[in-house]
Amino acid sequence: MDKNLIFEELGEKERILLLKANGYGVDTDGFILDSSMRKISSKENPRRYLKAKFACLVSGSLYVLDSTPTAISELIREEEKRDSENGN
């Protein structure tokens, strides 16, 4: 993982454009859809579905997750663990 993370706030329209450019969809209620047109559930709370206006798009990947501090810190921990296992 790059040691210099840059976070950039995007508006909902920009998020939707990026989601669609990366193969995702967004329904009329604002929920993010996978390539099979199913709603994507939150990793943080699997009973809740991700909405475009609250989603975090991870640069350099196709990750879409909640933009909560907990979800972002979990992603960073997972990436750090993966890097250390690969000797980076």
Provide a concise account of the structure shown.
The chain is of the alpha+beta class. It has helices spanning 12-21, 69-85, and strands spanning 25-26, 32-33, 55-57, 64-66.
Secondary structure blueprint with pairings:
Layout: H1 12-21, E1 25-26, E2 32-33, E3 55-57, E4 64-66, H2 69-85
Describe this structure in words.
This protein has one domain. With 88 residues, the chain is of the alpha+beta class. It has helices at residues 12-21, 69-85; strands spanning 25-26, 32-33, 55-57, 64-66. A hairpin with a 5-residue loop joins strand 1 and strand 2. The radius of gyration is 14 Å and the shape is globular. The protein is 31% helix and 11% strand.
